């Protein structure tokens, strides 16, 4: 059966890896799958005619909470093109709030709750063979004017069994235009080797999606994927896992395998300050690590405890000091706007950010999203969620000693204070890096289009 998977418009800095995994899995099972990535202007311009030509039997649309209505509108448009197709909603929102998602997304016949690879495959098999969809775990569907759900889907434990996603989206586009391209090493690919997180941060929603279970592929599998990415032009890989360094033994085995293979590709990843040790950092550095991203969240221990972050301010200082000592670049995420936070707490975060001297420091206003424990805190304070207006630079409730406009103004002030301003040396190193990354006439054309876009002379595809 033909399956169309649609990524709604959004930030084209991140490739649609989740849909790529779904497509790869379906193809491995003998179906024909295609990702329609509407983050890209070129694909947005022709997606309806392309969809009609493809003529799928199933159309799947993914949607996080802010995009749920946009996903419903897309499904309505797609249904006019392929009226006989079965429409399926996937993503975080339908997994957290299935009734709300299906109420808002009336264009959808079914929703996939949780991990989608096996569920979508079994659904497609049932639809193609006239089977009973009620026997497929992990679904929400319409029945007799209401909704019904099948039994929960078991988590996938063997991630080595899931094919790579990279052949099912415009890989070259994201090498050239991805969020991390040029920030560290030019032409940086994105990849994921694990799913889930055993930590219990109260602001985090994905842990509910993964049901607090952690699974990871083998180090050998991660290395093979890195080799594939390098062969296809990546000079760096950003492991986008929530916490790449969750298992120290795994990371050390990966680093040793990478060194033995002689693979020179650089990499960056997310970590936690309480998991970083000097011997681990040295091993990662020797294996090509370029930068680490840390969720610091706050410089106030009281707020870290409220978040159930499981770290201390002193651990933050120690981790960043280790990175500076061993020449590993750093980025830090901070958050303001939690219900119990005060101006003094935010100023403690400002002082800590100055002290740890991350190359990149990001400031967000916490937005209560379904699936997190703190979402319930906000509901108790009278917060009425407007899922179409969820933004990470907009406050939702006033703090004890700050109004909503004051919170937003302070966040903008913090962003401005800590904005990275590249030195002349960094600018020239980046230019050299771009030149060294040229491998083909296609690369030269993409560079030309990128420069034209930067100068306002053309549109980015």
How would you sum up this structure, described in words?
The structure is a single chain. With 461 residues, the protein is of the alpha/beta class. It folds into 3 domains: 148 residues, Response regulator (Rossmann fold); 241 residues, TIM Barrel; 30 residues, no CATH class. Helices cover 42% and strands 16% of the residues. The chain is built from 18 helices and 15 strands. The strands form 3 sheets. A 7-stranded mixed β-sheet has the order 2-1-3-4-5-6-7, sandwiched between helices. It has a 6-stranded parallel β-sheet with strand order 8-11-12-13-14-15. The chain has a two-stranded antiparallel sheet with strand order 9-10. β12, α11 and β13 form a beta-alpha-beta unit. α1 crosses α6 and α9 packs across α10.
Short précis:
With 461 residues, this protein is an alpha/beta fold. The chain contains 18 helices and 15 strands. The protein has three domains: 148 residues, 3-Layer(aba) Sandwich (Rossmann fold); 241 residues, Aldolase class I (TIM Barrel); 30 residues, no CATH class.
Average pLDDT level: 91
Please identify, by name, the CATH architecture of the largest domain: Alpha-Beta Barrel
Parts with pLDDT < 50 across at least 5 consecutive residues:
none
Number of domains: 3
